[in-house]
Design goal:
Blueprint (H helix, E strand, L loop, with lengths): L10 H22 L6 H23 L4 H28 L8 H7 L1 H11 L14
Helix pairs in contact: 1-2, 2-3, 3-5
Length: about 130
Amino acid sequence: MEQTIPWYESPYTILLCLSGMASITIALLAWKRRSYPGAVPLIFISLAAAIGQIAYGLALVTDPGEFRMVLAKIRYFGIVTAPVAWLAAAIQYTGRGDWLSPRNILLVAVIPLTTLSLVWTNGSHTLSGPPLTI
């Protein structure tokens, strides 16, 4: 059975949680400037990074089992959100914000949403390969 390292003995875990908190701070600062081009997608990018970093940091210090698996699945919210948010930020920042209709965002998000659904239903099918691990 795998032995976990307590959080105070793992500087990597502390750094992950600190960077997650920094990402949340960036999201809050961007929220104050949300009228600027690219600010709203930056909020989503920052929150996606925070979710991924904090969930991974917590998963590293939890005992193997169901909770660690849930944290691994929560990480995927950040993993699949970030690319769509980056694309939206680039489109908005370059002055093509009219391309960001709800329909177009949904079309771009089809693959990330499919990935997320496969991750959360991994126990019911064999499509996504081996089980999630940390």
